[in-house]
Design goal:
Layout lengths: L4 H25 L7 H15 L9 H22 L10 H34 L43
Length: about 170
């Protein structure tokens, strides 16, 4: 099923930050160095442009994971080369594992994220919070028949809100 140009452009524009930021998050989690913010910005724009032709039709899960794995490799190499200091010559096992995990998580978010958002939004629209979602306690007047005079306790405490004074025997 084909979608309109605006719909697939919207999917590409909303998918790109998910792909880049999850990749960056897991890259940092594995001990990789952070690139400068402008690098993250242009990577997100480039990812959106690359995703444009891919968002015209739903992707089979295997193809989605394969494309995201390629994106993870490209993003890792870009993060590594633009950070000016990295983790050596080859990616260590934790870096490979975290980017693999980022690939799977990104695929799940892209595959089911739209449905989850729709379900959440429809629930909110169907059952919006009432204007007074939080109960307001009724103000009740407490009438005293006669005022009670303050008395000093036998412990030696002075009247008022100060802590009690020690009792000397």
């Amino acid at each position: 099923m084909r979608s309109t140009g605006a719909a697939h452009a919207g999917r590409a524009a909303s998918s790109a930050p998910v792909v880049v930021l999850l990749s960056l998050g897991f890259h940092l989690l594995a001990g990789g160095a952070a690139p400068v913010a402008s690098t993250v910005g242009w990577l997100t724009a480039a990812t959106a442009v690359a995703a444009l032709p891919l968002t015209r039709r739903p992707l089979w899960p295997a193809r989605l994971v394969a494309l995201l794995a390629v994106a993870q490799v490209v993003l890792h190499l870009t993060f590594h080369t633009t950070a000016h200091h990295g983790h050596g010559h080859g990616p260590p096992l934790p870096m490979v594992a975290t980017h693999a995990l980022a690939t799977v998580l990104t695929a799940l978010v892209l595959r089911y994220g739209q449905a989850l958002l729709r379900a959440g939004l429809s629930r909110v629209v169907r059952h919006p919070l009432p204007p007074r979602a939080f109960p307001v306690l009724a103000r009740t007047a407490v009438a005293a028949s006669r005022p009670v005079p303050p008395t000093a306790p036998a412990t030696g405490a002075a009247s008022g809100r100060a802590p009690p004074l020690p009792v000397h025997s």
